[in-house]
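Feature request disguised as a bug: please show the residue count (495) next to Exodeoxyribonuclease 7 large subunit in the output. Example input:
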Amino acid sequence: MDLIDDPQPGQNTPEYTVSEISGAVKRTLEGEFGRIRVRGEVGRVFRAGSGHLYYDVKDDRNVLACTTWKGQVAQLSVKPEEGLEVIVTGRLTAFGAQSKYNLNVEEVTVAGQGALMALLEKRKKQLAAEGLFDASRKKKLPFLPGIIGVVTSPQGAVIRDILHRLRDRFPRKVLIWPVAVQGANCAPEVARAIAGFNRLTPGGALPRPDLLIVARGGGSVEDLWGFNEEIVARAAAASQIPLISAVGHETDTTLIDYVADMRAPTPTAAAELAVPVRMELIAWAEAMGGRLSRAAASGVRQRQQRLADLSRALPRKESLLDTARQRFDRTADRLDGALTAGVQRRRLHLSEVAGSLRPGLLNRMIAAHRNAFQARARALRPAQLQTRLTAEREALTRLERRLSIAANAQQQRRATALAGAERMLATLGYQATLERGYAVVRSGTDLVTTRAEASGHAALEIEFADGRLEVATTGARPTRKTKPEDPPGGQGSLF
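Example output, currently without the count:
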């Protein structure tokens, strides 16, 4: 320690600058305590925008300020939470700018298994309240996944047990994402692995799995604590790929077990849940094939028996033709006689008709028809036809002239009536009223007939006799009121 050894006359106590005394206190704290462990309850917790973590560790009488720098936060196996009893390990130091001392914490551990279980229960209630444990959001596992993604440690018996069981039951393609299964890196690595599998492209060069297995062997509560972290539970809940949790033994329970779509008591059981037994499927398929063959054969036999039963109820084919054959034979026997009799009847009729036909008679009939034709031909002369045609044409011309005169007269009468109606419309219409100094007030297509209606519109359009004018309402009162005797008009308000 550097001291100013220049006391005032009559004083033996040395003097220090503020920086000197702050440095002396800091060196004394760091040298006296060095690396220490402190047990207490976590109080206020604050994470700054810079990433540094500030919090208090307290007992029933005192409070110790603690700081974990941004680079140290990721190394903490347990994140401090308010109300959690912990043991913090770090170095005691002083901050001279504010005359304060605090503990730079490098490691946080939970003080006892009871505190761990209390923290676990607190997180479980929080996630359950958010609906992450609801059965309605759990996805159905695929019956036979093509690719299975496994999140576990690449060393140890867990991955070997899973691969061996998959090979025995139904060999599938397996993608392994190696992670730490305990310690400070466990939770972030498992969360990144689940999210990473979900970001893969289905059918890509590295295809996305159809099913995920998160597995770890048994261990203590502290060993399995990484799977109780909130980031792991949320990553499992956000997974679009169905997920099986196989963490620990059957009696071990972690938060990921509640969020996962299916919980397996052991990693081996997870492999059994993931795929069916191939030989059992083959046997089942063969059994179904046998049942199908037997059902088809039975159906054919039943239809054959049914056809035979129906055929016995039908008459013999010989009996179906007997009646028709007999009718044909009887008709054939009568055919010769019928043909002979028919020819004879037609010959007799021809003789009767031909007996009355003589050449002289035919000649006389032809002469009579020729004379009648010639008489009618003489009665038809072109001059007579021309005369009649001329008379009919003159009559048609007269009718056309009369029709034209009548149409013009009727058109003139209607034009006169229309002109009178137009003069009456001009006299009775509201335009004539506008010529006398009135106006029509509109708002858009609506007519405004009262002052109350006008005050409710921001802009009005006023039509005068010589055109229209748009005005904005200002709320001012009109200079005069509408006289009772002013005509309202048929098309708007006149004033």
